[in-house]
Amino acid sequence: MYIEMSLDMTHGGGLWSFPLCVWAPTKKEDGASWAYWSNIELVRKDDLILHLRGKDKDEAAFIGYSVASGDGYKTEERPPFPGDWKHARSFYRADLHQFTMFPRPITLKSIFEKKEKELLSYVEKNKKKATKKNLFCVKQSGKLQRQNGGYLSHADRELIDILFDEFDGNHKSPSQRVRTGDALRLINDRLGQQRFSKLIKACYGYKCCFPGCDIDDSRFLVGSHIARWSDNKELRGDPGNGLCLCLMHDRAFELGAFTLDEAFRIFVSPAESSGDRKALDLTSYHGQKIKMGVDKPLVEALREHWDRTKLNPANATVPLK
């Protein structure tokens, strides 16, 4: 996880605008490098990027998060409006997607006021580590301050909990508790989904489980829920509630083009036999069993998929092979 701290609301313009990417020059004007810029090259696909934006300390606020759509890289392409970095010959860049805005911005000022002790302790512990993280905040003259020029900094589970966990009952600030609680829930949901996706792909040996599909490149695989994350909290982290599918078959499953019966055989929607729905040739695999993973799919989860897609093998008019 990373924190993007930006005072520049223009942010490069065009396809370099917020929230499409994070970017920075590779060198300062004097040729020196800067760790808070080179961190961009360390970003990996699916990493979470929290956005802290605002021109001054009173205005700066966490407004939401994005997900890296690919690994960070170096490029000689230039933003339309490089601003103070027009001298640069090359730039670091990481592309983002799935920007999710918090219900309300959470001001850095309020976090520093309420969580100063915890954050100072976190900063001090980081200083003593053999491998120190580049943090967005520092201790200066005994006080908590933003790191000057700390554009992209490291974040971990402990820091996120300090920043966004609900304040204790001694603080008479219910609206702030709601805001930070909502933000933490959004972040936890996203992190939970990422962990689940990795678990499911590993359970299926990083291969699409649809019969006849040979895709085994993790870039084109999805470890997805059978019963949706938002629909069934009890099954969220259960590996039996997941399937590893390629992008195309995952989309077909989500749309209800096919489901699985209780014996884990492909059951294709009758609508897929129409002339304009043969791109995936799903019907050829009707009745064939999926390639099984470590954990069997949960029938409870499958029933939720049947209900949601209105596709129930028990009420089949199309016989299984």
Describe the structure.
This protein is an alpha+beta fold. It has 2 domains: 2-189, no CATH class; 205-315, no CATH class. Helices cover 26% and strands 22% of the residues. It has helices spanning 35-38, 108-127, 157-164, 174-203, 247-255, 299-309; strands at residues 2-6, 21-25, 48-53, 61-68, 73-75, 91-107, 137-140, 143-146, 152-154, 221-225, 242-246, 258-260, 266-268. The strands form 4 sheets. Strands 1, 2, 3, 4, 5, 6 and 9 form a 7-stranded mixed β-sheet that branches. Strands 7-8 form a two-stranded antiparallel ribbon. Strands 10-11 form a two-stranded antiparallel ribbon. β3 and β4 (61-68) form a beta hairpin. α2 (108-127) runs antiparallel to α3 (157-164) and α3 (157-164) runs antiparallel to α4 (174-203).
